[in-house]
Amino acid sequence: MASWSDDRKRRSSGKDPKKEAARFEEARSRLQAYLAALKQDETFQDYMKDEAVKRAIGHWTNTARLPPDEAQELVRERRVAAVFMRLRQLQELARDAGKSEAEAFQLFLGRGDVAKAAEREEQGRAEGGQTKAEEPSWQLMFARAVIKMVLMGLFAAAFMTLSKYIGGEPRGSGSGRVGSDEM
Fold it and tell me: Were 80 and a residue from 48, 56, 63, 168 both cysteine, which residue would form a disulfide, CB within 3.0 to 4.6 Å?
């Protein structure tokens, strides 16, 4: 859900859209090159076949959590450390290209395609819609919802307070008897 100020923020950011598009395109090409290099790196591919590396990745991705002591031991292993170093580099390149951690891991597993994702984003821009990178995060949407609820509560409290004083006399300030004879 877009707010009235979203367009104003985009226009006043001072960033040149052409430069930003070129920067993202460069980041995407670096990401593609890095993924290709990982696929061709025989040492890395051998490390990925190691059982300790598989367990560490399972722990890291929350698919198979390990006890804390065992996870600490795995991090100390040379192969696991080398794989994680490369995965951190992949994560940084993916972030620069506008991808989330989950998308980076999907790309790493070969389930995603950087070029197709870029094509979809370009189509979204051409159609005038928001791309995934421009959509507000869930935290921002949650904060907006909380602010709206607080404002609604304040307005309701103000309305209730004002409605008590209609006609110059507070309503409900009578004797408190339910069946009063003053009708």
Answer: 56
